Amino acid sequence: MSGAKPSVLVVDDKENMLKLFARILGDAYAVTTAPDGVQALALVSARTFDVVVTDIQMPGADGFTVLREVKRRAPDTEVVLVTAYASIPKAVEAIKDGAYDYLSKPFDPDEVALVVARALERQRQRRDAQGLAARVARMPDFHGLRGTSTALQKTHALLAQVAARDLTVVLTGETGTGKELAARALHRESPRRDKPFVAVNCGALPAELVESELFGHAKGAFTGATGAKAGLFEEAHGGTLFLDEVGDLPLPVQVKLNRALQEKEIRRVGTTTPVTVDVRVVAATHRDLAQEVAQGRFREDLYYRLGGVTVRMPALRERREDIPLLAMHFLAGANRPELEGFTPPSLQALTAAPWPGNVRQLQNAVARAVAVAAGPRITPEDLPPELTVARASATQGPLPAEALAKQPYREAVDRVRDAVSRDYLTALMQEFSGNVTHAAERAGMERESLHRLLKRYGVRTEDFKRGD
User: Fold this and answer.
1) Would you call the peptide bond into 106 cis, given omega within 30 degrees of 0 as the criterion?
2) How far apart are CA 158 and CA 186, in angstroms?
3) Residue 21 domain-assigned?
């Protein structure tokens, strides 16, 4: 561990026990001793220790008194009780009052070192979780689009810039990247914010009803049309109409949509009377519309009519630094207050996963982990199996050529590059025990550049540092 050694206070009224603990722990930790509980209380009132190891049976102030005072003054300090066999039930009860663990006499020196090391690890994890929770609390929230990554912040800025301009906007990106949240953000940032926001998933509408849903119909226009009905364009009058998966619209409806955008009027099915509408259209698609046009599945005139501004929503794998923050955000919204957070391996698994379903998949993965976790932290075993399998395969190197050939070219190249990069960074950190300065010199790059790569690929320097 770099920097100052962790501080350990050992309290016992027997001098030989103090010497024994100092001998066991002195190489790895800065050990302070106190011959009784009274002097221990004076020490903890003057400074904070990382771990306190205290005997229970002592004159003056016993170990339980020391425990209570330590937890009152420094809740983050871990306390380990030392007890004779007869006092074990009381020591176990003290764990409910905040003690980390207990050692029963006689104990093995290796057991002492292990318990103290585990206490420090628990403290580190709790501090990491507290730091992560603080970062979550400060995480920018642009109308539900959350994250600190450069990719997302650029998207936020572009959305805010175009919101005030009454232009048609096309939101592109993979499923689950937050396109509807972006559409709602555009509406709330626009002068139309006080008017309706109407959303429709074009791909979910039956082909025979799409035109009626968008433009409305007159009474008797078709079988089942027992009365006149306004369409979504009329419902959104003055506001914003969000056409999700616009690439799934049938070609005949695309013709009428293009005319509605051009003329700013619609005609209900079964009537020739035009109805003027004042609507800002925001469309979204996971398809490549230019390719759809080239293959005759999307009208070129509508493509250019919609393309006032195109905003691409970044995939989650393009902003991996946001994954721990989002995971903690979703955890905080779950009804499991006893869950403190994620273990480091589980956060590593989340950060390294490919996330084809993006933020939506991450939210579902956290919900699943919350449901099955025994606590107090979510472990890799609590995560969906496909995430840990994907992480394991990623760390084992690239796929064989015949397997890569079954993937799209870009995905195959990314898979190879990511696997090689992660393996290289892991080996580099292992060689230099997590020392970024020395590793950067070996890699021939600036220290800051190496830090960015480590963060991108979820390689934690703390995992490779050795004790002093």
Assistant:
1) yes
2) 10
3) yes
Burial readout 275-297 (b: 16 or more C-beta within 10 A, e: otherwise): bebebbbbbbbbeebeebbeeee
Helices and strands in the chain, H and E counts:
20, 18
- Would you call 83 helix, strand, or coil by DSSP? strand
In the three-class reduction of DSSP (H, G, I as helix; E, B as strand; rest coil), residue 10 is classed as strand
Same domain, 323 and 414: no
Domain range holding 96? 7-137
- DSSP, residue by residue, 286-313: SS-HHHHHHTTSS-HHHHHHHTTEEEEP
pLDDT in tens, 224-234: 777 788 889 99
Report the length, in residues, of the chain.
468
Tell me, yes or no, if the pTM score tops 0.90. no
- CB-CB neighbours of 405 under 10 Å: 10
Identity (one letter) of the amino acid at 209? L
* 184 shares its domain with 299: yes
For position 91, which CATH number holds?
3.40.50.2300
- What is the reported pLDDT for 149? 92
The rounded mean pLDDT for the chain is 85
CB atoms within 10 A of CB 394: 20
- The SS3 call for residue 34 is strand
Question: What percent helix, strand, coil does the chain show, rounded to 5?
Answer: 50, 15, 35
With a pLDDT cut of 90, the percent of the chain lying above it is 50
Q: Clarify whether residues 376 and 449 are in a common domain.
A: no
Q: Is residue 2 part of a domain?
A: no
Beta bridge partners, 52, equal 9, 79
Tokens of 387: 């995430």
Strands (E) located in 165-303:
169-172, 197-201, 216-217, 229-230, 240-244, 265-267, 274-276, 280-285
- Same domain, yes or no, for 215 and 270? yes
**Which backbone phi and psi does 52 adopt, to 5 degrees?**
-120, 125
Q: Which helix (H) or strand (E) holds 35?
A: none
Q: How far apart are CA 317 and CA 355, in angstroms?
A: 7
Which DSSP state fits 269? B
